[in-house]
Design a protein that fits this description.
Length: about 190
């Protein structure tokens, strides 16, 4: 998979289109489901009436998103299209983000895999935590089952719907096959036992 910077890891995915984000016009209102660049778009459901979703970029920011709605939508997400491919049990998708938010937010991330009209979602092992100070965060989605067939994969970040501005200075999406590095375990109550 090509990351946003053009680096490559062993994967069937190609995210070369994200390099076009630097040339995209990111000022003014956003359009639901319209590509910001190939492989990246915002979406919200039709219940989000009176939408006031704005995009901007200042200085070394890659993308700033501020979403406000008169009536809250069921979802409001930033979507990374990873493309078609087959993932195996133990494979991991990592989203690495350098960014901040006006207020502290904990953003859920999940992987959606779609094949033959059937969509399966896998939640990330952790949340994307952003606050007023710029930090670097890594969010990991780990597959616990082998893909039965080639699927179309999209990584989604649930964005704040209350007008909180989220700023991404840089990001990368990396595919780590199961055979490379140890598996990441989910935290359970027993993992905290002394």
């Amino acid at each position: 998979m090509n990351t946003g910077s053009g680096e490559t890891s062993a994967t069937p995915f190609d995210m070369a289109g994200l390099r076009g984000l630097g040339d995209a016009d990111l000022s003014g209102p956003a359009v639901n489901n319209a590509r910001l660049c190939p492989g990246l778009y915002l979406s919200w459901d039709d219940g989000g009436t009176g939408s006031d979703v704005t995009l901007s970029r200042d200085g070394d920011e890659m993308l700033a998103i501020q979403g406000g709605f008169e009536q809250m939508p069921t979802w409001f997400t930033l979507n990374f299209e990873l493309g078609a491919g087959r993932l195996g049990a133990g494979d991991r998708i990592a989203l690495i983000v350098e960014g901040h938010a006006e207020d502290a937010v904990s953003l859920p991330v999940f992987l959606r895999s779609t094949a033959a009209g059937q969509a399966d979602d896998i939640d990330a092992l952790n949340l994307l935590e952003l606050g007023p100070e710029t930090t670097i965060n890594t969010v990991i989605v780990q597959l616990d089952w082998p893909a039965e067939a080639e699927s179309f994969h999209t990584l989604l970040v649930k964005l704040p719907k209350d007008g909180t501005k989220v700023v991404l200075r840089n990001f990368r999406v990396i595919h780590v096959p199961a055979g490379r590095g140890p598996r990441v375990g989910r935290k359970t109550l027993s993992s905290f036992a002394v």
